[in-house]
Specification:
The complex is a heterodimer of chains A (about 240) and B (about 230). With about 240 residues, chain A is α/β, with parallel strands linked by helices. Chain A contains 8 helices and 9 strands. In chain A, strand 8 and strand 9 form a beta hairpin. In chain A, helix 2 packs across helix 3. Chain B is mainly α and about 230 residues long. Chain B contains 10 helices and no strands. The mean pLDDT of chain B is about 90. The chains are: A alpha/beta (about 240), B mainly alpha (about 230). At the A-B interface, helix 2 of A face helix 5 and helix 6 of B.
C-alpha cells in the first residue's frame, strides 16, 4: 500500500478487502490522469476520496467501477462483489420514478414487481413521487432516485461521485442520511467529495489525491486533525492546491 | 371548375375515390410497419455495436436514404418477376408487391435516422446503462423506448416518403384499376388523361391525410412528453 513514497496507509483496516488497485495508471494521450495508484478498499465505514478539482477522484471511481479501463496496473474486486454507481448528474430514464427502479431491478436480474420498486423508493423517501416522471423531479429527488436504482443492484460496494455537488443543505442532508443508512447496513460506500464538512460527517477513512497521485490515506479523524502531507494541510486550510 | 368537381367527389363519398384512398393507406401503413420492424432495430444495432466496416455500413445506409423510387421499383420488379428469385411467390402486380417496394424504399431512411438518434442518446446514457450492467439486447430495447418521441417523427418521415411515392408502386403494382391503383398512381394517370377533377380530389385527400397524421402524431407526442417526462 505504498505509492511513489507518498502514500502511507497508516492504520486503515484492510483485513476484509473488497477492492484492490495495484500501480494503476490512466492516461489521456500524453496526460496522466492517474499515476501509480496502490489502494486497498476494505469493508467498513465509508471511504471518501478528496482532492482539488482535476485530482482524479472521478476517474479513480470510474476505474474501480470498471467504467474506465486502466492503462497500467490492475484492479481486483472480490469475486462476489456487486458494484453500483451514482453519478454526479444522474441520467433519468424517460419514465416514472417507479419504472426507473423497475428497470434497474430488471437489469440486475432481481424480482422487479412494482411492490419491490416501491420498497426501494420508500427507503430513499420517494414513495409519494412514485408516479411522477423522473425527469420532472428536483435535483435532490433525482439523486435519491439514482440511489434507489443503485440499491436495486443490492451492491456490496456503492460508488458515489459528488452526489450532493449541486444540492441545497436540506437535500444534501437527505442524501447523506441515506448514504449513512446504506453504509450502516453493511454496504461499502466509496464516495468522492470536495465538501470538507460532508467528509467529516461521513468518512471512515480518507484517500487524498493531488494531480492524479495518491498522496495520503488516513483514518478520517487523523486526516482532519493531523494531516501528514503538506498538500493535505494546505487543502484543509483552504489554500489553493493546484 | 375542376376544383369544384374535385371537392364534390371528395365530399360525395365517391366509392372509386375512397377505394383508392383505402388501398393507399393499407399499402403505406403496412410498408411503414414492415420498414419499422427492420429499420428500428437495425439502426439501433449499428449505433450500439462496433464491428469492422461499420463506417462503410453507415455511409451506405445514409446514401440509401436517397434511393430513387424507380430504381427500387425496378429491383423489386426483377426480384418478384416470374424468372426472379422470388417469382414463385406470385406477388408481382399485387398490393403486397407495392408494400415490399415501399418498405424497401423507406427502411433505409428509418434505419439511418434511428442510428443517428440512438447514437446521440447512447452518449447520454452510456455510463448509466453500463453501470447497471444492462445487457446488449436490453440496451437496444431501452434506448428505442427512450427515443420513442423522436422515433415517431422518423416514422412520420417514412410515412410521408411512402405515401408520396409513385415510381416504385407503379412498376411493381402495375396501376391496375380496382386492384393496385393508389392515390399517387391515379393522380399521375388521371392527369395524363386530362381528368383533373379526380386528380385534384385525390391530391387534396393525400395532403389532408399527411397533414392529419402529422397533427395527430404531434398531439400524441406532446401529450406523452407531458406525462412521461
Amino acid at each position: 500500500m505504498r505509492g511513489d513514497g507518498l502514500l502511507d496507509s497508516g492504520d486503515i483496516a484492510t483485513d476484509r478487502p473488497v477492492l484492490a488497485l495495484e500501480r494503476v495508471g490512466v492516461r489521456a494521450g500524453d496526460t496522466a490522469i492517474l499515476s501509480n495508484i496502490d489502494l486497498v478498499i476494505g469493508a467498513g465505514r465509508p471511504t471518501v476520496l478528496m482532492g482539488p478539482n482535476g485530482s482524479g477522484k472521478t476517474t479513480l471511481l470510474r476505474v474501480m467501477m470498471g467504467l474506465t479501463a486502466a492503462n497500467e496496473g490492475r484492479v481486483d474486486a472480490a469475486n462476489t462483489a456487486r458494484r453500483a454507481f451514482v453519478f454526479q448528474k444522474p441520467v433519468m430514464l424517460k419514465r416514472t420514478a417507479r419504472d426507473n427502479v423497475v428497470f434497474a431491478l430488471q437489469a440486475a436480474g432481481r424480482i422487479s414487481t412494482p411492490a419491490h420498486a416501491m420498497a426501494l423508493l420508500g427507503r430513499v423517501g420517494l414513495s409519494a413521487l412514485a408516479d411522477r416522471p423522473a425527469r420532472r423531479l428536483s435535483g435532490g429527488e433525482q439523486q435519491r432516485l439514482a440511489l434507489a436504482r443503485a440499491l436495486a443492484r443490492k451492491p456490496d460496494i456503492l460508488f458515489l461521485d459528488e452526489p450532493t455537488a449541486s444540492l441545497d443543505p436540506a437535500q444534501t442532508k437527505a442524501v447523506e442520511d441515506i448514504v449513512a443508512d446504506v453504509a450502516a447496513s453493511g454496504v461499502k460506500v466509496v464516495m468522492a467529495t470536495h465538501d470538507l464538512g460532508q467528509a467529516r460527517r461521513l468518512a471512515g477513512d480518507v484517500v487524498f489525491l493531488v494531480r492524479g497521485r495518491l498522496v495520503e490515506r488516513s483514518p478520517a479523524e487523523t486526516f482532519f486533525s493531523q494531516p501528514r502531507t503538506v498538500e493535505a494541510r494546505r487543502f484543509l486550510a483552504g489554500d489553493l492546491v493546484i | 371548375m375542376d376544383g369544384a368537381s374535385a371537392l364534390s367527389l371528395v365530399f360525395s363519398g365517391d366509392p372509386t375515390l375512397y377505394a383508392i384512398v383505402q388501398l393507399s393507406l393499407i399499402v403505406t401503413l403496412s410498408a411503414v410497419a414492415l420498414a419499422a420492424i427492420v429499420g428500428l432495430p437495425l439502426g439501433a444495432l449499428v449505433a450500439l455495436t462496433r464491428f469492422p466496416g461499420r463506417s462503410a455500413v453507415i455511409v451506405v445506409l445514409n446514401a440509401m436514404m436517397g434511393l430513387p423510387p424507380v430504381v427500387v421499383g425496378l429491383i423489386v420488379f426483377l426480384a418478384l418477376s416470374r424468372s426472379g428469385p422470388l417469382g414463385a411467390l406470385g406477388l408481382l402486380f399485387t398490393p403486397q408487391a407495392m408494400i415490399i417496394a415501399q418498405a424497401v424504399l423507406i427502411a433505409p431512411i428509418i434505419a439511418a435516422l434511428t442510428r443517428q438518434v440512438i447514437e446521440d442518446l447512447w452518449a447520454e446514457y452510456r455510463d448509466e446503462l453500463t453501470a447497471m450492467e444492462v445487457s446488449a439486447a436490453a440496451r437496444v430495447q431501452a434506448l428505442l423506448w427512450e427515443a420513442r418521441f423522436s422515433l415517431v417523427a422518423i416514422l412520420l418521415a417514412g410515412f410521408g416518403r411512402a405515401a408520396a411515392e409513385v415510381g416504385a408502386v407503379m412498376i411493381v403494382g402495375g396501376n391496375i384499376a380496382g386492384h393496385t391503383r393508389v392515390m399517387t398512381t391515379t393522380i399521375a394517370l388521371e392527369t395524363s388523361k386530362g381528368n383533373l377533377a379526380l386528380a385534384i380530389g385525390l391530391g387534396l385527400v393525400l395532403i389532408t391525410i399527411i397533414l392529419g397524421v402529422n397533427t395527430l402524431a404531434w398531439g400524441v407526442r406532446h401529450w406523452a412528453e407531458r406525462h412521461a417526462g
